[in-house]
Amino acid sequence: MKLFRTAFGATLLVACLGQPALATTQNVIFNGTISPTCTLVIATNGTMTVSPDLQTLSSHNSGGSAGTVTLTTTGGVSLSVDPVTTTTVPAADTTSTTWTPTYSSAGAHSIVETGSATAISTPGADLVSVHLAGTKGGSNRFANGNYQATVTLRCE
Fold first, then answer.
1. Looking at the whole model, is its pTM more than 0.70?
2. Given 2.60.40, 3.30.70, 2.40.160, 2.60.120, which CATH number is that of 38-155?
3. Which of 28, 62, 67, 69 is the most exposed place for a label (fewest CB within 10 A)?
4. 94, 142 contact by CB (below 8 A)
5. pLDDT digits over 12-71, tens only?
6. Is 155 within 8 Å of 118 (Cβ atoms)?
7. Which parts of 2-155 fold into alpha helices (H)?
8. Which N-terminal stretch is annotated as signal sequence (predicted)?
């Protein structure tokens, strides 16, 4: 009986060797979703200098410089600056100042200097230049001392 089983098994094996193997396949599906996102990393803070007539304190004035921020985005976002809400002025400066923040960008997205929101629809990286100008009206002038203002750059 043992010999019969061995012979039968060998015969079955030889019969199967001549047949092609039955192949089977299955598709594996991968899904992924990326939500609109962006990151902002401060590269440098800005510097404001006063104009010769003492009525403008700005990063655009001679000797002033923009703050710079690196922007990386998937697209589907909007870039903007908030109105200035945090300022520090010397005690001698008692007249009002109008603060105007603006920005521009270079890189994957070229944005001409603006204070308005800009839609960014495509992915990429940019260097964003943030400017700030403070202006005095009428006969008012900036007083001597240290000034500081915070500009919030927003990407959402």
1. yes
2. 2.60.40
3. 28
4. no
5. 555 556 667 788 999 999 999 999 999 999 999 999 999 999 999 999 999 999 999 999
6. no
7. 2-17
8. 1-23
